[in-house]
Amino acid sequence: xxxxIHILMxxxxxxxxxxxxxxxxxxxxxxxxxxxxxxVKALEYLHSTCTANSENCPDxxxxxxxLPKKDGLQVLAEIKGNVLIKHIPVVILxxxxxxxxxxxSYQLQASCYITKPVDFEKFAAIVQKVQQFYFQIVxxxxxxxxxxxxxxxxxx
Length: 156
Known about the structure:
Layout: E1 5-10, H1 14-26, E2 31-36, H2 39-49, E3 60-63, H3 72-80, E4 90-94, H4 99-107, E5 112-115, H5 120-137
Parallel strand pairs: 1-2, 1-3, 3-4, 4-5
Helix pairs in contact: 1-5, 2-3
């Protein structure tokens, strides 16, 4: 695979972000990991990089739920409500295993929900499996925002 995979990680824990970075480095897939530490910055980043004429959108978003300024569920709702970015798979990667968080995440169209293990080896294995699944097994929508013009949907 020659395409650089762009992953946006929304994570307020520098330790977890660094663990993910190390896990991605151990993989054989070329990727660019961008980390933002709160929900407001995540949405600002997406709105600035995923414009109608841009192909700089992330291919995958790893989203923590417990974030400052705007929590992960609010971020997820805004992502899935925006026609320019709702096609991007969002993996919830959080310490919360609360049933209400799981249910709400899927109601808001999260691609999957993963509870973070505290052990580095287990965390690295999960990150690598997520990366393998999304970039070696499944077919993602082509890069660039999808404005909904094929379905008649208007961009928000």
